[in-house]
From TrEMBL:
Residues 165-187 are annotated as: Disordered. One of its GO terms (molecular function) is hydro-lyase activity. The keyword Membrane applies. This is 2-vinyl bacteriochlorophyllide hydratase.
Amino acid sequence: MIGQRTTSATSKALYSPEQRARRDATVWTLVQGILAPLQFLVFLVSLALVIRYLMTGHGQEIATASIVVKTLVLYTIMITGAIWEKVVFGVYLFAEPFFWEDVFSFAVIALHTAYIVALLTGFTDTRGQMMIALAAYATYVINAGQFLLKLRAARLQQQADDRAAAQAASPQAAAEAAPQAAAEAAP
């Protein structure tokens, strides 16, 4: 089941209280929290190996293996991310808060898959395959940036919600928290 994209001028919050509770309760949040930095580490190692190969002509096998590993980690995080989205938002993909991240994820997957196809079919030489990998990696960096911005937005939303709850509970506490809130909101 793929979700429907809705647009609502009133829905600015990334998570509803119910969605936040599901996000915090599911093991899939932890899985994503482990896989995302793992994927980034694999990416950095692979990027270094690919650049080394392109600059020196040495290390083709290890560079190739690293791209395959990076692609497998990407596929894994995409599948587990879809499960996470289903648990939290009720749809496997394209939940409104993550619509554009999901759309761009498919470009990332398409380029990684194009690399695998080129590798298996010999569609292009090794240098061409490495260039496809670099294009895939560039889209991955953009997509990772999208998700990091979304993570920051979620953190800021949580802080704002916590302040609002504190203000509702105690106007005095809210007045004391206002300077800290301004400092936290600054980039």
